[in-house]
Design goal:
The chain is an alpha+beta fold. The chain has 2 domains: 4-144, Jelly Rolls (Sandwich), CATH 2.60.120.10; 146-216, Winged helix-like DNA-binding domain superfamily/Winged helix DNA-binding domain (Arc Repressor Mutant, subunit A), CATH 1.10.10. Helices cover 43% and strands 23% of the residues. It is built from 9 helices and 8 strands. The protein has helices spanning 4-7, 17-24, 79-87, 108-117, 119-145, 148-160, 170-177, 181-193, 209-216; strands at residues 29-31, 36-38, 46-60, 66-72, 94-107, 165-166, 197-200, 203-206. Strands 1, 2, 3, 4 and 5 form a 5-stranded antiparallel sheet that branches. A hairpin with a 2-residue loop joins strand 7 (197-200) and strand 8 (203-206). Helix 4 packs across helix 5 (119-145) and helix 6 packs across helix 9 (209-216). The protein is elongated, with a radius of gyration of 20 Å.
């Protein structure tokens, strides 16, 4: 007998019968947007697999500056949860549901059993862990080496998709690129003054997509700030 949520994840659809029975007994559940899955200092009690929706994982520094580490989408898992479960560590960041999400929470005892008994499940966990870790490394590379204008432009394009409007606050965008809200606000004001974007309460609209694309690839003129360089 097939287990619907397992069959929705390609790398788990061929899981052995014993593990299928164990994992399949755990129901998927819906989580409302805005719900907090874990906070810094919490102990990991379950292994989350996202079936649909999106969860954002952030860390906050001593000054209150927040950085988006990565997002967990359909068929993906959280690298912090894997580290916490395998290394008996507490969470160092916070996970928030940014889109209504359907997920499976595998209790720690069941997770440990599946890791020990199922080669397919173990490969899925470590494969997902590797992909998430790569995302974190790419984030560090961008923060260290990519100009803030290019990072901001790239995020605007990514969130706009094929459209023009991005529903996000300046703080949301700052967290996504590893910067401060005040810095992002100044950069957006400069883009607006150049006729590249339009700003509204809680949203940004791309007016000149070609200019944004040029800035994102580093081919456009950087948006200068006379008050000095920003991070």
């Amino acid at each position: 007998m097939s287990t619907p949520w397992l069959d929705r994840i390609g790398s788990l659809s061929g899981i052995d019968d014993g593990a299928r029975t164990i994992a399949g007994a755990i129901p998927a559940r819906r989580i409302k947007r805005g719900s907090v899955i874990f906070r810094a200092g919490d102990e990991a009690s379950a292994f989350f697999i996202v079936l649909a929706g999106r969860i954002s994982v952030t860390i906050t520094g001593p000054t209150g500056r927040e950085i988006l580490l990565y997002e967990v989408g359909s068929g993906e898992t959280c690298v912090q949860t894997t580290l916490a479960l395998l290394g008996s560590r507490r969470y160092e960041g916070e996970a928030t549901v940014t889109e209504e999400t359907e997920a499976v929470a595998i209790p720690r005892a069941v997770f440990d059993r599946l890791m020990g008994e199922s080669t397919v499940f173990r490969a899925f966990v470590f494969g997902s862990f590797g992909r998430r870790l790569t995302d974190v490394i790419h984030l560090l590379e961008k923060v260290a080496f990519v100009p803030i204008e290019s990072r901001l432009a790239a995020v605007l394009l990514d969130r706009a998709g094929n459209g023009q409007r991005i529903d996000a606050t300046h703080q949301d965008l700052a967290s996504a690129i590893g910067s401060a809200r005040e810095v992002v606000s100044r950069r957006l004001d400069a883009l607006r003054d150049r006729g590249i974007v339009d700003l509204g309460r809680g949203h940004v609209t791309i007016v000149n997509r070609r200019a944004i694309e040029a800035i994102a690839t580093g081919l456009g003129d950087h948006v200068t700030d006379r008050r000095g360089a920003d991070a």
